[in-house]
Amino acid sequence: xxxxxxxxxxxxxxxxxxxxxxxxxxxxxxxxxxxxxxxxxxxxxxxxxxxxxxxxxxxxxxxxxxxxxxxxxxxxxxxxxxxxxxxxxxxxxxxxxxxxxxxxxxxxxxxxxxxxxxxxxxxxxxxxxxxxxxxxxxxxxxxxxxxxxxxxxxxxxxxxxxxxxxxxxxxxxxxxxxxxxxxxxxxxxxxxxxxxxxxxxxxxxxxxxxxxxxxxxxxxxxxxxxxxxxxxxxxxxxxxxxxxxxxxxxxxxxxxxxxxxxxxxxxxxxxxxxxxxxxxxxxxxxxxxxxxxxxxxxxxxxxxxxxxxxxxxxxxxxxxxxxxxxxxxxxxxxxxxxxxxxxxxxxxxxxxxxxxxxxxxxxxxxxxxxxxxxxxxxxxxxxxxxxxxxxxxxxxxxxxxxxxxxxxxxxxxxxxxxxxxxxxxxxxxxxxxxxxxxxxxxxxxxxxxxxxxxxxxxxxxxxxxxxxxxxxxxxxxxxxxxxxx
Length: 485
Ligand SMILES: Cc1cc2nc3c(=O)[nH]c(=O)nc-3n(C[C@H](O)[C@H](O)[C@H](O)COP(=O)(O)OP(=O)(O)OC[C@H]3O[C@@H](n4cnc5c(N)ncnc54)[C@H](O)[C@@H]3O)c2cc1C
Known about the structure:
Radius of gyration: 24 Å
Strand content: 15-25%
Bound molecules: flavin-adenine dinucleotide
Number of domains: 2
């Protein structure tokens, strides 16, 4: 390892540059004196490249960009990106709030390439805590240049883990791991050509990715006789909740309420709320129906070799004895079992937060819950043992503590601002105290009080040492926050 040139510690080191840490980088950018570094192992910013399917759109309005829901005047807003690209007029006439997914990817790349704090091709390979002699201490991060293998080190007062989630391979499919004709939807565009020659393709999973893959396959195989199947464990292809009041589950108000609930209630809620975060959009479901409708005009509807079968769980999958794949299925309502033979499987079976390997040296200093998950406070700070006094923050790994809004891009800027306020120990970004009309707690219950605003807490030893001018905090924030919304 190269001996690092002595340099002052960063105030904040971000591990991973997906949309969430990129939002943190963008909101931190205008803060004078704040030293930040964000590292990503990829050579450049990419947003779910395997699912940038033609025509796919975002499921949130464009205002869920990196900064606008906190500070629309920030130069890293989507509207400013459009201005820089001379595309404001086309966007204005398009009158679409939901961007093409490819455009969101390009917008994020535009920001990531220009933000000085973002460094790509750099994997964070290990994180350590180095206690200081007189108390306190610093994080020490080992970085590896992914092109050259060169290793360096940096120090930081605070860490923000934004390493995203990993594709899930359900246990029933473990025998297909690595099979050339079975892959996760995260790799769809990279592996789509592997489906060439398959006469029978099965898509598993009722979420947005499953619906998009199925629609893409329908369009590509219209009229060529390839049989397409869509199997989902959920009993109905119900659309994602998208009513205006329903969307208030994706507000900081709901997040605070959810956080105040006992752990068993939270765990039960996350699975019960599948329609808020796991279903497919009504628009994509309608496109599938429209496609089939058009395709079968003038003929019986079963002329298209298509099977859509909800309420069917795959209990075991394996390579077939004579080639192809075999799926043992159980129908939820009848309990009937059957064997399905298919040539290829696309697993749209979701994603899950996972502990990054780089965290292992710190693992014994983290106060895990009984299921080995982070305990995360309202500032998105992870509970640690007393000897680790630095700020360890997470983004998108707190579904169990913060609820369905955790992976939602609409809450990304707000969460990043909360972290930034906590890291600096003051109100860099003023945040609203009331964000929903819905009252989630029962009437008369003790209000769900947010954390004490950063500006009212004594600065932590890990706040930046340099004096940083911040946006003055108006009186109403103090009043509302202490009154608990
Ligand atoms: C196909 C798809 C579409 C989605 N569409 C929407 C949508 O429309 N609206 C919405 O609200 N949500 C959407 N989501 C959910 C979610 O918001 C996104 O997945 C989002 O990308 C999550 O961002 P992230 O920053 O947590 O992680 P990611 O985007 O996964 O980025 C994490 C980054 O961390 C890097 N990394 C990991 N470990 C290290 C390390 N040790 N060192 C350096 N770098 C590391 C990775 O290379 C990666 O670039 C979608 C999800 C998927 C899968």
